[in-house]
Design brief:
Layout: H1 2-11, E1 14-16, E2 25-31, H2 33-36, H3 49-60, E3 65-71, H4 77-90, E4 95-99, H5 110-127, E5 131-135, H6 153-171, E6 174-176, H7 178-184, H8 199-218
Length: about 240
């Protein structure tokens, strides 16, 4: 019960740099436990991705930044779609960040999962959202999947994830390839339970979300990051 309450406090409402009435750039982050920042391992709790996004965008955007988050553990793609629909009814943000499908991998139905994601992208476009970020699904190797190895469930889940990610790469208006990032830098994106990241991993994800939004906003690759968090490699000095 306490975990659910903390999640609600951590992921509902808005994180802003100024009064929301004065906000000029708005962004909605919708998804499951990976965008909620559910921490794996002994620490537990949450490391909200949105906190890093707000702090990083403040460095680039001089106007106030309004970030609203609707992200909860165990949400399916269909439930994320409903949450996004409710968000778009309440306002039209300048940007939307979507990560969904993690909790659908068990079903091994890539087509159904992607149809839901595609509808989300299309609904954002119809609502007038200027920047829609689609995030690929990171590795999924939960221990429980090994219990069903006799029916090749781990292999089927991986095939589903790969197919969904290929579709996201093709269809996302703005792509954040978390799957590629996590596979290339497993030391940062550690997944103790095979699904969720550590605090350092969520901070890294927050930086990537901010970088992706910055690139979309300014129309070119984002400048080098100045914030260094534990677990992230320090960028090389400028020459």
């Amino acid at each position: 019960m306490r975990a659910h309450l903390f999640c609600a406090l951590a992921t509902a409402g808005a994180l802003s740099t100024n009064n929301l009435r004065d906000a000029r750039f708005s962004c909605s982050i919708v998804g499951d436990s990976l965008l909620a920042g559910l921490v794996a391992g002994g620490e537990g709790g949450f490391e909200p991705v949105a906190k890093v996004v707000v702090n990083e965008l403040k460095k680039l955007i001089l106007t106030p930044v309004d970030i609203r988050v609707s992200a909860e553990p165990l949400r399916t793609a269909g439930q994320v779609e409903v949450a996004l629909s409710e968000e778009l009814k309440s306002r039209t943000p300048g940007a939307v960040v979507i990560l969904a499908g993690t909790n659908d991998l068990w079903r091994c139905d890539a087509d159904a999962t992607f149809k839901s994601l595609k509808r989300m992208y299309e609904n954002c476009a119809k609502a007038g959202v200027r920047h829609v970020v689609g995030i690929t699904l990171p590795p999924f190797t939960a221990d429980a999947t090994q219990w069903f190895s006799i029916v090749d469930l781990p292999q089927r889940i991986e095939a589903t994830r790969s197919a969904v990610n290929d579709n996201i790469r093709d269809a996302a208006p703005v792509l954040l390839d978390l799957a590629a990032d996590a596979e290339a830098d497993a030391a940062t994106y550690v997944q103790p339970d095979g699904i969720h990241f550590t605090r350092a991993g969520y901070r890294a994800l927050g930086l990537r979300v901010a970088e992706t939004l910055e690139e979309a906003l300014i129309g070119r690759k984002a400048p080098p990051r100045t914030a260094i968090y534990p677990g992230l490699k320090k960028p090389p000095p400028a020459r």
